[in-house]
């Protein structure tokens, strides 16, 4: 079984790193599957290379107020387990062979086992929350977040191969798919630490803006990085009809060149995908998407600037800038 490999970004923040290691340990302790191979695969996925951003933002937002750190670690672990479950299910839908630089669970064991593994992780989420069920203010809002998260995923699936995809539709999708979970992470951290309504509302806004910028930047990587660098196959979303900001912007500039290639759909060759990649860059799609990500980044940083003076504020400002601020 793999040792925990936290992203090097946390080496700069030892207090956060210590709590994130506790998050991973708690997640591992709650994986009690009879099938040792599947159990090992799930634990390896948890411990292998994810940035752990969502639980980190939960922990940081909770640090502004005196609170039970064991409780906050459990809530952060529940947030990360929920995220992991969604990744397992995403890989089934996308037939993805890899995740975080290793074989995906569905690729190793088949889709049936992967569905079970993802569902099991949802059970783990409720198990973690049950310890504090009498003391959770945020449970009443959690179901609303989950509705929107699932709605975003379903909207993305129903919009596949939509050649008339707009930026507005794309933004609604990624709000549900990614930003809502970041918003949940920051909301839980604030609310469960006893923060005021105003603080919690600000925390939610910060989380949503971070999530929006993060997803746009992640979509840009399909056109900027290799599959080795990002830990998953590049251009797979394109072949599967999932169109993101760089392509949508490029389609407004060069539709006649790009559309015939998109109509190849799942039959698109590597050479044709490379053509789309080059056309997107030439049409300024990547640059326009970076400007969009920067807008959400700036909104997130402005929100963080409004937080009260605290060491956690300094970490939030520095961390978010490192992750998202890409003015080049």
TrEMBL record:
Keywords: Magnesium, Metal-binding, Transferase. One of its GO terms (molecular function) is metal ion binding. Its cofactor is Mg(2+). Coiled coil: none annotated. Gene3D superfamilies: Farnesyl Diphosphate Synthase (1.10.600.10). Transmembrane segments: none annotated. PROSITE patterns: POLYPRENYL_SYNTHASE_1 (PS00723), POLYPRENYL_SYNTHASE_2 (PS00444). One of its GO terms (biological process) is isoprenoid biosynthetic process. Signal peptide: none annotated. InterPro entries: Isoprenoid_synthase_dom_sf, Polyprenyl_synt, Polyprenyl_synt_CS. Belongs to the FPP/GGPP synthase family. This is Polyprenyl synthetase family protein. The lineage of its organism: Bacteria, Bacillati, Bacillota, Bacilli, Lactobacillales.
């Amino acid at each position: 079984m793999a040792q925990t490999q936290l992203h090097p970004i946390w080496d700069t923040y030892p207090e956060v790193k210590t709590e994130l290691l506790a998050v991973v340990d708690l997640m591992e302790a709650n994986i009690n599957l009879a099938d040792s191979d599947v159990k090992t695969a799930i634990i390896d996925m948890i411990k292998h290379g994810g940035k752990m951003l969502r639980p980190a933002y939960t922990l940081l937002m909770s640090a502004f107020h005196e609170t039970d750190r064991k409780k906050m670690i459990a809530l952060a672990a529940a947030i990360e387990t929920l995220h992991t479950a969604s990744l397992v299910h995403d890989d089934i839908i996308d037939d993805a062979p890899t995740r975080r630089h290793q074989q995906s669970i569905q690729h190793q064991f088949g889709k049936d086992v992967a569905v079970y593994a993802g569902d099991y992780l949802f059970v783990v989420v409720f198990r973690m929350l049950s310890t504090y069920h009498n003391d959770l203010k945020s449970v009443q809002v959690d179901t609303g977040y989950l509705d929107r998260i699932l709605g975003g995923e379903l909207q993305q699936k129903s919009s596949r191969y939509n050649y008339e995809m707009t930026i507005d539709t794309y933004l609604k999708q990624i709000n549900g798919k990614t930003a809502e979970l970041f918003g949940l992470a920051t909301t839980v951290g604030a609310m469960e630490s006893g923060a005021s309504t105003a603080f919690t509302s600000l925390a939610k806004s910060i989380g949503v803006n971070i999530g929006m910028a993060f997803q746009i930047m992640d979509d840009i990587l399909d056109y900027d990085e290799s599959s080795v660098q990002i830990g998953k196959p590049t251009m797979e979303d394109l072949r599967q009809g999932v169109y993101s900001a760089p392509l949508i912007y490029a389609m407004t500039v060069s539709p006649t060149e790009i559309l015939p290639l998109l109509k190849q759909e799942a039959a698109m060759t590597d050479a044709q995908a490379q053509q789309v990649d080059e056309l997107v860059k030439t049409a300024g799609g990547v640059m326009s998407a970076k400007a969009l990500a920067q807008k959400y980044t700036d909104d997130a940083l402005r929100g963080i600037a409004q937080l009260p003076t605290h060491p956690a504020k300094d970490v939030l400002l520095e961390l978010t800038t490192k992750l998202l601020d890409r003015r080049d």
